[in-house]
Amino acid sequence: MAERSYFDWNATTPLRPEVTTALADALAVIGNPSSVHAEGRAARKLVERAREQVAQLVGAQPADVIFTGSGTEANMLALTPAIEIAGETRPREKLLMSAIEHSSVRAGGRFPRAAIVDVPVGVDGRVDLVALGTAVSSASRPLVSLMLANNESGVVQPVAEAAAIVHAAGGLLHVDAVQAAGRISVDIAALGADLLTLSAHKIGGLKGVGAVVRASEDIHFSDPLIRGGGQERGARAGTENVAGIVAFGAAAEAAHRQFADEAAHMRALRDLIEEGIRAISPQAIVFGDAAERLPNTTLFAMAGVKAETAVIAFDLDDVAVSSGAACSSGKVQPSHVLAAMGVSPQLLRAAVRVSLGWTSTKADVERFLGAWRKLASALSKEPGIAA
Ligand code: PLP
Q1: What is the residue with the minimal CA distance to atom 12 of ligand 1?
Q2: Which one of 77, 87, 123, 351 has the fewest CB atoms closer than 10 angstroms to its CB?
Q3: Could you give the C-alpha distances from 355 to 120, 237, 304, in angstroms and in order?
């Protein structure tokens, strides 16, 4: 296969080398972590070490990390009316969420549809804090879900400010930090989050592993999503995915150690991409660039380019990019994120997401820009499309 440039890191990342090594060692451990014999204890030790590593990535206590089968499952576990905090067991009646959440949050977890309230975002892609204030004050003790960084635009949300608003109204805040982890600093206390969602495969671990992290051991789920053997302190039954959890821990440790350098590396390349796009096609628009964004993400569009066509053209030129969110690509669906930001229907269908990672190189950027130059100039020769 020809050399390719992978620019779809927000969809998933390759395994980190540290992870591959840790995984190979973990696969040699045969025990069930719940067993009392030496084999079981060896597996338990691996799981608990990984719990410490994941906790450290977000400044939490290891006992507050609950491993799940994905980021999606973590969101599903967290978004329930039945969250007990410090012995307070009354169910939460309303779930408030921003209009740009990932589909796994938009689905509403275990709240009935009628209990869900949308909070709008501004044209810059950030949640409207005034609207959030109004929404929380008209809901009694709501659960609020606000992502730390958007998977399509990369726009970083004002989570700490939102937390102050939510807590002042007696609410609880869940933060989907799946895209932010390993790319910007994520500290559960500094954010003021009560619950946080993580996913291993966005930080160099395996697909199919995630976590809910609690701000304190006073927070409990009285209706676990999966009941049975009482694993994960009763919050998520089922024999632990030892290898996947070990890989998650190794990825979290590497991400924690290296994220400042990796972020600077990704940002420099991402800025080159945006400079290049603007030089080749001055009429192109980069969404969310008025706000703070993840250092690895560019979501851009040019009128007249259909995103699906662009993704295929890039692919033929050995460049992997995506049109909007990975979960919805394959289905041609306009982005709910850009729609919430007030983007015109024509541009909505043109948005291409380029997301980088720690192994991206300048040669990758050049390959991308070469492909874009070809595509943009082919379009400018079509009748009716301005260059
Ligand atoms: N939340 C966000 C913001 C995401 O981008 C994703 C995946 O794309 C998820 C949640 C779901 O994570 P997983 O793929 O582990 O189910």
Answers
A1: 71
A2: 87
A3: 25, 35, 22
